[in-house]
# Entry
Amino acid sequence: MRLLLLPCLALVGCDAIYTDLRPDSPPVDAGLASADAAPTDAFADAGVADAGLDRDAGRETDAGAPSAITLVGAFEGRGGYDAAGTATLQSTDTGLELVFSEDFASAAVPGPVVVVTPRSAIGTSLTAADTVVARLDSGSIRGANRFDVELAEPPSPAYVFIYCEPFGVETARAVMEPR
Amino acid sequence: MNRFLMALVALATLGSSNAEAQAWIRDPGSAYVNLGYRVMRADGFYGDDGERFDINDFRQHTLALYSEAGIVDRWLMATLEGEVFRRSVLVDQGAVTGFGDLNLGLWTGLLEAPVHLSLGVRVGLPTGDPSPEADGDPASQTVADLLPTGDGEVDVGLHLALGHGFGWRRVQQFVQASVGYVVRTTPRDTRASLPPAADIRDQLAYRLETGIKVDRPFFDRLWWIARVAGLLVVQDRNADTSTGVPRIAGLGDGVEYAAVGLELLAELGGGFGLGFGVDGAFYGRNVPATAAYKLSLTYQRRP
# Structure
């Protein structure tokens, strides 16, 4: 028994070793696979327009009611994923809404949800500070979309995340700033 | 009795750090060691609400050690169990390899007839790494945060194990049931990017199993075993489940499962044994949704 204990105790407290398994040439839209290429490159094959702040972010953005608050942010990939497009958070007569531009695209992770939060990083689990706006299915991880947000006003600061809830992975983030 | 005992201990330690076969207290000088390799490949995950999500490849390899030694006839037996190797892989993203958590246990016999009943205290030690360091790349660190090798906390469990062995015609059979209340505490270390560490909620661990062996040439070396085992959160079930410990690796707060398992154990002679088994959960929360395959080598020393 002592012989068994010794090697075990010798290892106690050892730090774990991390190994990066991201491929050098990541596949496009590889789900949980990493994609280090620029968002524009990664989504070019999917017919997605260039990333970045899009002033013509979508029909809903332009057609919305006069907004008391309008925050805009460009999606950037997180955790090795690619993302493209723009998020617009604006108040309307009926409340707060979140609009994705037509060139929005995010990685096809298993359980992506849209999260509005004042936290700059979600980490591996959601908290009470985070507002889950919607769950994205495979047909809504690209293209324009509009969501009602159950908040009276945007958090300050404001971030919009695409977040893989089952795995607790951030796949995209937009830092929301006044237009 | 020794054959029953060997089979019971072996089945309980194949691939799992939860050895729940201590109804029989070992004699002084008797010892048992089990080294089990366990592998799973998951394409699904049970979320916090029990809903199953499809996921991309997640793989986990563990090498689990279980050992026990009789100290005082009938009254005291010590156990040591834990994962001496744990590798969790998010395919094409990253992997974490390290030492897992250990459990120390002391068991005492309460009854020897008409059934065996024992009471045990098990202490879980945070020897694994709850917050693995990546290579400095924030993207890598996000992945590393998901794959701890330990839960980062000390826990204490009080367990009861009930066992009975009997024969009918040319068949030997055993039945064992165990239940334990595990008091969980607060993880000691989490990443700054994660929510603050909170108490992991207490759990109920349970196990019911039976095995048979046929007294025929060749078959009298084989035990065929079936079981149901699981973990259930019993404290503040509706509480906020946010915790500092990532959930993907099956560690941390809110982990529940109910699984069925089948195993085949072969006695090789000279005290050695070989086992193969498969377990699969039909209900889970915060655990990968997949079957786990196990291969184990056992050795028993008798006084």
Notes: Confidence is low (pLDDT under 50) at residues 25-66 of chain A.
